[in-house]
Amino acid sequence: AQTVTQSQPEMSVQEAETVTLSCTYDTSESNYYLFWYKQPPSRQMILVIRQEAYKQQNATENRFSVNFQKAAKSFSLKISDSQLGDTAMYFCAFMKHGGGGSNYKLTFGKGTLLTVNP
Amino acid sequence: EAGVVQSPRYKIIEKKQPVAFWCNPISGHNTLYWYLQNLGQGPELLIRYENEEAVDDSQLPKDRFSAERLKGVDSTLKIQPAELGDSAVYLCASSLDSDYEQYFGPGTRLTVT
């Protein structure tokens, strides 16, 4: 079974600064996806960024980028130019690719609560 | 494009009562998921549908939980009877197919007293 670990329960950052959220995972699979989801107080889970394991290039989405280290099973999220609206719970998630059955479920970490201060 | 719709947003019931949650996925999305999110935790999958077929219900407590997705569109998740430990947020998500990004609804917060 896959496990996802987020070792930082809470973090804070000043507006306009950069912050990095950590995530490690454990799997014996070679073909999988990794995701970062954002959940603001409204509870709506929003996809921030996605990384395919077979791609060596790190994914980026505007101010959000990842550092994917496959051998180390590490998948950190960097938020640049932090904005007040980035305040939310951030979840790292794993999904095995292919094979049907229970392979397409997302396995989430426990989350990191990020607060952006003005 | 409308997102995943869930209702109700909040529900308070007494233990041993039945409760039902409704989900309307994004139009054209074949795969639908129900997740349970306890306070301070990440969501955990309860059941996954591909069209009207439940292809993964291994985490669904079948003694009290049931779900259906008639006609492969809307879905209903039911708990009968509810227990105090069922208090949580129930999230619905949908994806174009199983191998695509999942889009979540706002969830239903259930409180069992």
3D architecture notes:
Helices cover about 0% and strands about 50% of the residues of chain A. With about 120 residues, chain A is mainly beta. In chain A, strands 2, 5, 6, 10, 11 and 12 form a 6-stranded mixed beta sheet that branches. A 4-stranded antiparallel beta sheet of chain A has the order 3-9-8-7, with no helix packed on it. Chain A has a two-stranded antiparallel sheet with strand order 1-4. Chain A is globular, with a radius of gyration of 14 Å. Chain B is about 0% helix and about 50% strand. Chain B is globular. The mean pLDDT of chain B is about 95. The chains are: A mainly beta (about 120), B mainly beta (about 110). The interface of A and B includes residues 104 and 109 of A.
Enumerate the spans of chain B where pLDDT stays under 50 for 5 or more consecutive residues. Answer: none
What is the radius of gyration of chain B computed over CA atoms, rounded to a whole number of angstroms?
13 Å
Nearest-integer average pLDDT of chain A: 92
Hey, roughly how much beta strand do the residues of chain B contain?
Answer: over 45%
The average pLDDT of chain B is 93
Which two chains touch over the largest interface?
A-B, 24 and 26 residues
At a glance:
The complex is a heterodimer of chains A (118) and B (113). With 118 residues, chain A is mostly beta strands.
Task: List the defining traits of the structure above.
A: 118 residues, mainly beta, 6-stranded mixed beta sheet, 4-stranded antiparallel beta sheet, 12 strands, 51% strand, globular, B: 113 residues, 7-stranded mixed beta sheet, 11 strands
What order do the helices and strands come in, and which of them pair?
The complex is a heterodimer of chains A (118) and B (113).
Chain A: E1 3-5, E2 10-14, E3 19-21, E4 24-26, E5 32-39, E6 46-52, E7 60-61, E8 64-69, E9 74-79, E10 88-96, E11 107-108, E12 112-117
Chain B: E1 5-7, E2 10-13, E3 19-24, E4 31-37, E5 44-50, E6 53-56, E7 65-68, E8 75-79, E9 88-95, E10 103-104, E11 108-112
Parallel strand pairs in B: 2-11
Antiparallel strand pairs in B: 1-3, 3-8, 4-5, 4-9, 5-6, 7-8, 9-10, 9-11
